[in-house]
UniProtKB/TrEMBL annotation:
Any one Gene Ontology BP term: positive regulation of protein localization to cilium
Lineage: Eukaryota, Metazoa, Chordata, Craniata, Vertebrata
Organism: Centropus unirufus
This protein's GO CC annotations: centrosome; ciliary basal body; early endosome; midbody; recycling endosome
Coiled-coil regions listed: 23-92
Similarity comment: Belongs to the ENTR1 family.
InterPro entries xrefs: ENTR1
Keywords: Coiled coil
Recorded superkingdom: Eukaryota
TM region positions: none
Protein name per the record: Endosome-associated-trafficking regulator 1
Length: 160
């Protein structure tokens, strides 16, 4: 009986040691589980914070993209308007250049016509000047004759 008791005590001791070992393993596993839960919760919080941060960044980028698209659309409209204005200015410039050529031709024709009239007036005035000079010379001759006659008529009066 003592021997059986000793065997049973030995078994009980072994079972207690095994139980304590199992209890230690269980405590370690519970501690590891608790640490893992805490770690997972922290990771979940970090992940949630990261997701929120990414969502905020996404919202900001979306706002920027919308602004950029609006700006690009506005710039495209301005560019199209400027292209139309440029084409209008080019057309107007070409019209003015062709108009200048027409105006230049008209001015040249007018200048040629004025030159012809001026030459005609010059020719007429030369003949008129020649006639005036000839008339002046004739008048001078008549004046000289009248003076001579006046001297002639004065001379006999002096002689009498």
């Amino acid at each position: 009986l003592k021997e059986e008791n000793a065997i049973l005590r030995s078994k009980i001791n072994k079972l207690q040691i095994f139980s304590e070992t199992q209890a230690d393993k269980l405590r370690k596993l519970e501690r590891t589980l608790k640490e893992n839960k805490i770690k997972e919760e922290k990771e979940a919080q970090d992940l949630e914070a990261m997701v929120q941060h990414v969502e905020q960044n996404l919202q900001l980028m979306t706002k920027r993209a919308v602004k950029a698209e609006a700006s690009a659309t506005k710039l495209k409209q301005e560019n199209a308007l400027l292209q139309v204005q440029l084409n209008n200015y080019r057309t107007e410039n070409e019209a003015l250049r062709s108009g200048q050529l027409v105006s230049l031709a008209t001015v040249k024709q007018n200048a040629d016509l004025a030159l012809q009239k001026l030459l005609a007036v010059l020719t007429t005035s030369r003949s008129s000047i020649k006639q005036l000079v000839s008339g002046a010379e004739s008048l001078q001759l008549v004046a000289d004759l009248l003076k001579s006659i006046d001297r002639i008529s004065e001379a006999p009066e002096d002689g009498q």
